[in-house]
Amino acid sequence: MAEEPNYNHITVEANGLTIHALEAGKGPLIIALHGFPDLPISYRHQIPVLAENGYRVVASYMRGYFPSDTEPDGPYEVAALVQDVLALLEQLTEQPAVLIGHDWGSVVARSAAILAPEKISKIVCMSVPPAGNFGRALVSNSAQQRRSWYMFFFQLPIAEMAVAYNDFEFIERLWQEWSPGWAYPQSVMNEIKEAFRQPSVLKAALGYYRSQFNPALQHPGLADIRKRLSEPIPVPTMYLHGANDGCIGVETTEGMESAFLRDFEKHIIPSAGHFIHQEQPEVVNELITRFLTKQHK
Description:
Blueprint: E1 8-14, E2 17-24, E3 29-33, H1 46-52, E4 56-60, H2 78-92, E5 97-102, H3 104-115, E6 120-126, H4 131-140, H5 142-147, H6 149-153, H7 159-178, H8 186-196, H9 199-213, H10 223-228, E7 237-242, E8 264-269, H11 276-279, H12 281-293
């Protein structure tokens, strides 16, 4: 197991699920949402710093990621993930909260802000630009099309076997490609692999991508939510992206300002790839704490 900072493991009943999370601190609520292939341990550098700055930080396991429970077959689409987060907010606080998201967590944080801006004071998103930017890149940016090969590969029935082969060597290779030159802690990788050894976790993680491309995996009852997820984001937002991101190229962030209705700031982090909050934690922590104390219009 990776070395843990001083936090509690909690469970919360929300949206019909038992959601597990790491928790530290007291004060205004921050919910931190991880991406793929990752876990809440991703925020090990942020949790103690934000707690020391007077916040209650809850880094939750996303739907389907061990040990949070879910239905074996999902749904795993963004509309369902957003419902989880909004239900979690409902259980944890009566005040507007901050959402911090990386990768898939970034998508969910923006989507939650669209659906319930009254519950969310501001958001911090990392490493995945808004849907409009990313969608255009998949259509017109040949470099990004090559970087996103894994999304299309995950549609194949052999994907589970390939990802699990040789003790999930696939995941290590992705981390190396996405954050070139970063020597990630082996203890963290071991914890991620431990989770992915649960067959349900691997199926769920791939289900996130499969539901994006396969309408048959999208729940009919979530159609109204799906329609709204491309709307402008109506809360103050800070966006962070690594200059050397090998998963989603930094050029895909150009012009993203138009997707935000309130105060917006974007920072490109030098000497960082996809996992910026782990690679450059001091820089990221300083930016986040400054943004959280900033007065917004």
